[in-house]
Amino acid sequence: MRFDIVTIYPEMLEPFFSSGVLWSAQKKGLIEIHIHDLRAFAPDRGIVDDRPYGGGAGMVMRPEPFFRAVDAITREVGRRPYVILLSAQGKLFRQDMARELARKGELVLLCGRYEGVDERVAETADLELSIGDYVLAGGELPAAVVVEAVARMVPGVVGRYWSAATDSFFCGPRLGYPQYTRPRVFRGMRVPEVLLSGNHERIARFREREAWRKTLENRPDLLGLSIEADP
Ligand code: 9D3
To answer: Domain coordinates of the chain in residue numbers?
Structure first.
């Protein structure tokens, strides 16, 4: 699978893909990640932004550099890639989308900055994605998030068990159960006795109950309940 990321800050993204599971996957030849400098596609002195029609504060990213970048990547790939614009106005990115996008073969991720991107880029993209309801400075971190989540769903990038477990742990009706490791007592806090009992039936019941308890506490929305206003 091939990922092409278009950004005005290529140096911000490069180190992120140079360690961990994404680095191993590239070395194994399972994925390719290409990072492109948007300014290289801005013929007029690399200027990528301009003032908004209709007025208002801040600058808007011009459409042409994005279109030219997608054209150049399409020529390089040899067929039409699936194009995603990362924007605060996008659809909320979720695990089921990561699994679907992993089947696309070639993904292009366009990162916006400033007050946003000319809407004609959003209209032409196959998908406009946001990673959550908080304000970031641009689409670079969201692009890294999407690449990592999608790459994990490419066969071979993580073990088959972990890839399959992704759905039941994070997209199913409840969250994962709490985990413990050594020592048995840490600063006075004990590992629940049941986990040391060796009784696998009791352990399974305990984990199930704790997973539901934690879901109710932290993610009532997954159970169809409303979210508390304060943390
Ligand atoms: C006046 C409204 N603006 C907020 C000050 C809108 C706005 C413009 C640009 C909000 C954020 C951004 C930059 N963010 C992204 O490009 C972005 C993003 C995000 O902010 N949150 C979650 N997902 C994403 S994906 C891209």
So the answer is: 2-151, 173-223
